[in-house]
């Protein structure tokens, strides 16, 4: 008997059948004696359809109105899920983000949660109801306008509610069985991970694993909320994301696994600034120009300066969708900085190896690079954190690179086969 | 320069093209120097589609959740209308019923407006914005739950906002050119009425004219809000609903027209209770039983008691959709009241002649019945008010009856031809 927060993505509630299946699962959890708070995304392609409608009347819809429009999606799914649960004889009440007390800043389309005041949700639970909450949305503290949280918003809503209400677990239901040691579409022998730490999950999410979003994991780590990532299409145990290292809870004496998994990302582009004067402050000016355009830089590499010329090359990666904006921003400071040339390459891929055990195993980088070399993959950039190594290679080399690394670190499953059900939630 | 409230029905905002057309009209009103508050219904068939979705998961969805679901419809249309206006370079902000301060009781699906506190709307106007408000919806004063106002709800929202904000006019945009002397689909020579009084409009709306709903007209009369019913598909002047008799304003010396128009209604059924003991209180018991089932009775006729039996027959009409419920309610009191038989007839139609001038022209009833007789229409029930005569006849006789009465009272147009654009708004 405890408090369970469950989040269902758009693919889990894509149609009436999916909603009825989700309702069965929620009802079962309630009947098992738990208090249940459910966070839902919009049904299937609803959000895309609403965006399409907006674009039919306006090439650049005002952000406030776009948020007002898109939040209709979760309003529909939450009400229908509540109806489906009520039809099973269990009382259910739906609440918008605003009604659920999800208070945000005023940054429409990418609002940050400032506070959660779930008084109405608690009352509903106290009165024996299941509470259904619209994910992805909140209300601005200052303007009282409706806001949306941006990508991964529904996951973040679920974790934020779980934190505010002291839930025992936040279950994130999706269309895969959990977090895998690699993308099963690239590596059919990928293994479902029974456990990963917040730290590892952050690195996986930041480097291309799509099953959980970075913000949601950050939020869960900050408040110590255990996340259970699992499939809404099966009853299998999924992946637990906690502060306990993998496998340690089950068999405390066992040595911790070194590597959790391999992530990849084909959404970035590489920008190279050629012939930057090698003086203090020049690199800072470059990155300031890019940051001022609202673009997040991921990896950065600066070559050793050529003594003869007193100039150096600086490469960085950023989202492809921001690539042209980054070039424009840099071009505007070309005169002030005096670099020679801008190169742009959007045919790159990134492979990352993540594992908390890497800290105490110095040979990992060598083995990683060796595996890539054996597979004929050329490394263009390298960056590392305490528990991650990432490299940039040609985009078309990604599948072979992921498989080679996955195999080299003995991550292949011996029995369990991954199931991918298609689609991704918001 | 004044404050104009405009309401656009579902057929006016059925798709992106319709919304852009509506936005042009709103922008033109704003550019003419007026403050503009716009009330919108859900786009086209959205409400029906949402109801269909609800029925796929639950045969009898909880009313609270159905309201939550249906209000997504206006949320979508209002946001998209606001975007379309913004795209014309005019600032527009959308507001839900709750944000607009439409406070209701807690009767989900048929909530009554208790109060309107349009502070946020006024602020938006003061800051130079057009305000777009979701029709049909409000928020319960007691539970803070989202409510819907039931049929004609968006018209009522518009008039209520106009009253609360002291608007100069409430323009109701629809898919016909105004209020006609009869349904143009039955009487091609029907005339658009330049003016009708609230009183006449109430009788027309209560007796089958669908262009405005009773509640909205009642609200407008109570607060003295002039309504201008007009088409969103043309620039023509429509019909003004005010407290001034028809034509009197234009030509004060002219005699008032006797008759405004002919309404008809094919949505009612007739129930006859045969052999009711002719004692005080028996009729009251019958009607109490029907009222307790939540059914509104329209016309009532009680025959003269047959002296020999001491029994009488009582007939009444009610909505066909409530017919079976009325029979069940009456059957439950059959023993207590001791009537003999229940007859049910849902093949009836009702024709009503409405005109404020009827008060001072005693021959109207005779002429009305004569016209029906000449057309071979048999009268089954008659009821009258000060400014209306209604009769019940066979359903299939309705078109001929309407045309005959329309012609007998010289209501046919001499020049203007009615245009029906198809569909009806909510």
TrEMBL record, chains A, B:
State the SUPFAM superfamilies in the record: ACT-like, Carbamate kinase-like
Keyword Plastid in the entry? The reply is no
Residues annotated as binding ATP: 7-10, 174-175, 185, 210-211
* Cited Pfam families: AA_kinase, ACT_9
Q: Does the keyword Plastid apply?
A: no
- Binding of substrate occurs at 47, 74
Q: What is its EC number?
A: 2.7.2.4
Q: Which InterPro entries match?
A: AceGlu_kinase-like_sf, ACT-like_dom_sf, ACT_Aspartokinase, ACT_dom, AKii-LysC-BS, Asp/Glu/Uridylate_kinase, Asp_kin_monofn, Asp_kinase
The UniProt entry's GO CC annotations, sorted and at most eight, read: cytosol
Task: List this protein's GO terms for biological process.
Answer: diaminopimelate biosynthetic process; homoserine biosynthetic process; lysine biosynthetic process via diaminopimelate; threonine biosynthetic process
For this protein, the record's PROSITE patterns field holds: ACT, ASPARTOKINASE
The ACT domain covers: 271-356
One Gene Ontology term of the molecular function aspect: aspartate kinase activity
Q: Which domain of life is it from?
A: Bacteria
Pathway the protein contributes to? Amino-acid biosynthesis; L-methionine biosynthesis via de novo pathway; L-homoserine from L-aspartate: step 1/3; Amino-acid biosynthesis; L-lysine biosynthesis via DAP pathway; (S)-tetrahydrodipicolinate from L-aspartate: step 1/4; Amino-acid biosynthesis; L-threonine biosynthesis; L-threonine from L-aspartate: step 1/5
Query: What family does this chain come from, according to its entry?
Result: Belongs to the aspartokinase family.
Q: What's its job?
A: Catalyzes the phosphorylation of the beta-carboxyl group of aspartic acid with ATP to yield 4-phospho-L-aspartate, which is involved in the branched biosynthetic pathway leading to the biosynthesis of amino acids lysine, threonine, isoleucine and methionine.
Q: What is this protein called?
A: Aspartokinase
Q: Which organism is it from?
A: Vallicoccus soli
């Amino acid at each position: 008997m405890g408090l369970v927060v469950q989040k269902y993505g758009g693919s889990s509630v894509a149609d009436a059948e999916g909603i009825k299946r989700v309702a069965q699962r929620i009802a079962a959890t309630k009947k098992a004696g738990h208090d249940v708070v459910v966070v839902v995304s919009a049904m299937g392609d609803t959000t895309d359809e609403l965006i399409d409608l907006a674009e039919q009347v306006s090439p650049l819809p005002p952000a406030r109105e776009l948020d007002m429009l898109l939040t209709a999606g979760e309003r529909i799914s939450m009400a229908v899920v509540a109806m489906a649960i009520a039809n099973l004889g269990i009382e259910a009440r739906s609440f918008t983000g605003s009604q659920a007390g999800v208070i945000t800043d005023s940054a429409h389309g990418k609002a940050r949660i400032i506070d959660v005041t779930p008084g109405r949700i608690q009352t509903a639970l106290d009165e024996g109801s299941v509470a259904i909450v619209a994910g992805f949305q909140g209300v601005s503290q200052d303007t009282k306008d409706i806001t949306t949280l941006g990508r991964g918003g529904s996951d973040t809503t679920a974790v934020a509610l779980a934190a505010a209400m002291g839930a025992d677990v936040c279950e994130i239901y999706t269309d895969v069985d959990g977090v895998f040691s690699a993308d099963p579409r690239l590596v059919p022998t990928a293994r479902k991970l029974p456990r990963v730490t917040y730290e590892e999950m952050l690195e996986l999410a930041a480097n291309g694993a799509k099953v959980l979003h970075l913000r949601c994991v950050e939020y869960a780590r900050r408040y110590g909320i255990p996340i259970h990532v699992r499939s809404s299409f099966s009853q299998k145990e999924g992946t637990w994301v906690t502060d306990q290292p993998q496998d340690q809870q089950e068999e405390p004496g066992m040595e911790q696994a070194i590597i959790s998994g391999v992530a990849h990302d084909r959404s970035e582009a590489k920008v190279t600034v050629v012939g930057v004067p090698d003086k203090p402050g020049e690199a800072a000016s470059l990155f300031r120009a890019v940051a001022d355009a609202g673009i997040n830089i991921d990896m950065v590499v600066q070559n050793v300066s050529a003594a003869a010329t007193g100039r150096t090359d600086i490469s960085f990666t950023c989202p492809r969708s921001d690539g042209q904006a980054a070039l424009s921003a840099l071009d505007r400071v070309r005169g002030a900085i005096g670099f020679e040339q801008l190169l742009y390459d959007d045919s790159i891929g990134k492979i990352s190896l993540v594992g908390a055990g890497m800290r105490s195993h110095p040979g990992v980088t060598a083995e990683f690079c060796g595996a890539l070399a054996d597979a004929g993959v050329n490394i263009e950039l390298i960056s590392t954190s305490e528990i991650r190594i990432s490299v940039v290679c040609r985009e078309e080399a990604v599948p072979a690179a992921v498989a080679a690394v996955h195999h080299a670190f003995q991550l292949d499953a011996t029995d369990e086969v991954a199931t991918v059900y298609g689609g991704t939630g918001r």
